Amino acid sequence: MSNSEPRNPFYMFLLLASVLFVGTALAYALVPSLEEKAAEAGQAPPQSNFREALRSDGWRWLLYEVAAIVVLSVFCIGLDRLRSLKKERMQSKNRDDMQKIIN
User: Fold this and answer.
1) What is residue 1's predicted lDDT score, i.e. its pLDDT?
2) Which of 13, 70, 78, 89 is 20 to 30 A off residue 24, Cα-Cα?
């Protein structure tokens, strides 16, 4: 049996939120320029609800995703800190118990 610590579940959510943020940021930056290039080439892109939503609400999506990243980062750090404090407390208690046995 290994003595490894349990995984922090917030890391997976943080990773997912970060990947979603990168995807949204790339789409928000690149889709308008791709539409413009298509229009310059004489071929207007077909209507898309996603592109309309991205154009009108993309900046909000990015803000929500940044907020999620900040909150999840705080949770990750907090849980790691809590676990390390518990581990230190247990080690200190074990040392104290050993000292009592020795004395």
Assistant:
1) 42
2) 78
Give the residue from 36, 27, 91 showing the smallest Cα distance to 59.
Answer: 27
Residues of the chain with pLDDT under 70: 1-3, 103
Q: Enter the tokens of residue 102.
A: 């020795």
The dihedrals phi and psi of 46, each to the nearest 5 degrees, come to: -65, 155
Do 52 and 1 touch, CB atoms closer than 8 A?
A: no
The answer to whether residues 31 and 69 touch, using CB atoms and an 8 Å cutoff, is: no
Label residue 64 exposed, middle or buried (CB < 10 Å: 0-12, 13-18, 19+): middle
Q: Which of helix, strand or coil describes residue 58? A: helix
State how far the Cα of 68 lies from the Cα of 66, in Å rounded to an integer. 5
Separation CA 24–CA 32 (nearest Å): 13
75: exposed, middle or buried (Cβ count in 10 Å: 0-12, 13-18, 19+):
middle
* Cβ-based burial of 7 (10 A; exposed 0-12, middle 13-18, buried ≥19): exposed
Tokens 């979603």 sit on residue: 20
